[in-house]
Amino acid sequence: MTPTVPAIPVPVRKTPLIAWGFLCLMALVWGSSFILIKRSLTVFPTTQVAAGRIFFAFLFFLPVLAVQSRKPETGPIVKTTWWAFLVAGTMGFLIPAFLFAEAGAHLSSSLSGALNSLSPLFTLLMGALFFGNRIRLPQLTGIMIGLVGALLLIFFSSTGSFTVNGYALLVVVATVCYGTNTNFIGRYLRHLPAITSTAWLFAFVGPIALLILLTTDFFTRFQTAGASLMALATLGVVASGMTSILFNRVLQMASPLFAASVTYLIPIVALLWGVLDGERVYAVQYAGIGLCLLGIYLTNRRT
């Protein structure tokens, strides 16, 4: 159970321009992650894609962890905050990695990206329910409009007609994890440098991913995986590693809800990749994208 901490009022501040730049960069990388999952699944099964993604991110952070371990202040930080690193790493990376890998085996990359737009809604709801955050009317209006846009993408992404896919629920659960974890990091890890908190998240979940991989034939497939291995390594190092540093930095510069708003832009990138991969884009999808963009605008208005 997460310890109860009294809500601390956070003064309203203007979101810096660089945070918007980071937001767009994160959208570009994470919007591409769904096609990378698709490419990885051509050789590796879902368990290996999920655990491999976390393992490659862990390898990326090993040099950072080695340097930080020599600093005298690192020991006390890890000793007092290890539980937060473990919770955030599991809830924000390990569990969603498995959910998205399984969903990616059954959903198009554009649909998975569209479903990811639900994260800001759950960031708002989890923040209000468990972290003492207040919901303002512009935020609520923006979230609901963005949700409508996401729903259009969810139910019309594959065929242009109304369909419901049960595997979509896996992505919904992942967005609940993301929304909760965004608030959790904002509450318990916001005071740490972004690269420090991100590196130690993977220090705790990386070995778990390695243990999972050792129970499979991952390292046998590894030797002849070719392009699929490159896709998986990029997924881990860039999407789960480098971009996560940016995400935690944005959390420090702005609000958890603003950081989660990246998921309104991810469907645009995912749809573009879908087009390049032969997926057809329908008019209703463009309507959904427009509503998502309107939603992010209203969600981040200060008045």
* Poorly predicted runs of 5 or more residues: 1-12
What proportion strand? under 5%
Shape by Cα distribution: globular
The secondary-structure element order is: HHHHHHHHHHHHH
Alpha carbon gyration radius = 19 Å
Number of helices: 13
Mean pLDDT: 83
Oligomer: single chain
Query: From the helix content, strand content and strand pairing, which structural class follows?
Result: mainly alpha
Largest sheet: none
Task: Give the helix level as a range of percent.
Answer: over 70%
SSE inventory with pairings:
Elements: H1 17-40, H2 46-69, H3 74-104, H4 109-115, H5 119-130, H6 137-156, H7 168-188, H8 194-214, H9 218-222, H10 227-253, H11 256-260, H12 262-276, H13 283-299
Helix pairs in contact: 1-4, 1-10, 1-12, 2-3, 2-8, 2-10, 3-7, 3-8, 4-6, 4-12, 5-7, 6-13, 8-10, 12-13
